[in-house]
């Protein structure tokens, strides 16, 4: 039987401030390295305490409702954090709770590591089990078989149902030990002296995070138009998308992934969303490695 969806509480900005402060004071909810976090009973009690803080004579909230509201806040923070790691200037972040939720930044990087380890495991399996034959697309087996093992119901947040056990203690910190996230400790603007309209609401901010941000140089004039025309992607006879001006394996692989993702989405949207999430985690991991390499080179 499918779980019953928890409706949104539609918390006010003031209530969300209280929610964040209450969660910060309860490591059982957010600190995946604490013993309390790994104790289901402690987490239930923590959410119940938060619910009691926000409840009043008019409205009584439940622990499950507080968990749902916190997860929405955390998801938005997580996507914003990834954009900053990928190169967005922290000073450009307009989400009003960005600074207030910095206490969970390190834990969110642990969740990225969890996805990276999952990819590494699949990559090792591909290297040992696959011997591509002549003429066979080298990544085809990985895409069609390796990703097929991804459980679309798997929870990457480690903050799912209250009754769900976690395995965060099994994660290693080798990768994070070698990567230093850009500093987020910048001066927080005085909200009281600024126009409140300068801040995005949660829905607008979440929508902006879904929009691509490639930061590509802009070109103008006839030459740029010709270049864009040359790079038009069109289907090839074998069903794999191809780029008329790029024949590298990376370009072919990217077009192949786009084609397969579209095919999967037309048959199982949930599975396609899970696959897209995994791919984004892999891309971000590579971006962070490049960032670290460039930083070390500059030093």
Q: Which secondary structure elements does this structure contain, and how are they paired or packed?
A:
Blueprint: H1 13-24, H2 27-30, H3 40-54, H4 63-85, H5 105-129, H6 140-146, H7 174-177, H8 202-209, H9 222-230, E1 233-235, E2 241-243, H10 249-267, H11 269-298
Helix pairs in contact: 1-3, 3-4, 4-8, 5-11, 10-11
Domain MADF: 18-109
Pfam family, one: MADF_DNA_bdg
Protein name: MADF domain-containing protein
Structural write-up:
The chain has about 300 residues and is mainly α. It is built from 11 helices and 2 strands. A hairpin with a 5-residue loop joins strand 1 (about 235) and strand 2 (about 240-245). Helix 1 runs antiparallel to helix 3. InterPro entries: MADF-dom (IPR006578), TF_Adf1 (IPR039353). It holds the Pfam family MADF_DNA_bdg. This is MADF domain-containing protein. It comes from Acrobeloides nanus.
Low-confidence stretches: 131-198, 211-247
Instruction: Outline the biggest β-sheet.
Output: 2 strands, antiparallel
Order of the strands making up the biggest sheet = 1-2
Q: DSSP strand (E) fraction?
A: under 5%
Q: Structural class given helices, strands, pairing?
A: mainly alpha
* CA-based gyration radius: 22 Å
Overall helicity: 40-55%
Organism: Acrobeloides nanus
Domain MADF: 18-109
Pfam family, one: MADF_DNA_bdg
GO biological process, one term: regulation of transcription by RNA polymerase II
Give the gist of this structure.
The chain has 299 residues and is mainly alpha-helical. The protein contains eleven helices and two strands.
